[in-house]
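Run: sequence + adenosine monophosphate -> complex structure.
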Amino acid sequence: MKNQLSLDVVILGLPGSGKGTIGSLFAHEIKRDHLSTGDMLRALDRESELGRKVFALIDKGNFVPDKLIAEMVKEVLKEKESVVLDGFPRTLSQLPIYDELCQKLGRQGLFIKLEVPSDIARTRLLARAVKEGRTDDSAEVIQKRMEVFQELTAPLIARLKKQKRLVLLDNTRPPVEVVSELNLIYKGELERRWEHNLGTGYDGI
Ligand code: AMP
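>> structure
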């Protein structure tokens, strides 16, 4: 029997807020796996039956069904002591799925929200479109993803904030600074910040 709960770091934030970048750098820092649900979905074969269904949703900026994500994540979490989770839970309805998994598997999540004004997030996504050619990084799909975030992820963020379970981290700074602050929070050496600390230009998403 484990007497200590494994601690996952769960990263939330707008599309383009840097979840992938910070998630993978931090996972490397603490020598854990970076589990990105977006990457897992994009690794599916586009021509398979499942791949066709999934890409039809992703390519338009829509979310895939909770059940599919839950199955995927469950398989991986069963095998790993603690991970950096990027992309799950992402909706209010996915929170109890994660909480239940935590109970069953003896783990808990440190929820981090990367704070970035939405105009910066959009600019980053458009730059990534040129570099990586992701099919969901066109201006039109980015707009849709922002709307889906407002509709489905913002309520999760509001809930976690209310429960004082969400630590806010300014990700307009260089990644090394953000990762080192995250590390201090993870190790319990820095007070967790529950209120946003960006300037007046921040649009509060
Ligand atoms: P990301 O790489 O995190 O931006 O995710 C890319 C896309 O994968 C999203 O726009 C969704 O279509 C899908 N996706 C990733 N994680 C989830 C999730 N937890 N629930 C539903 N859809 C997801």
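>> summary
The mean pLDDT is 92. The longest strand covers residues 107-115.
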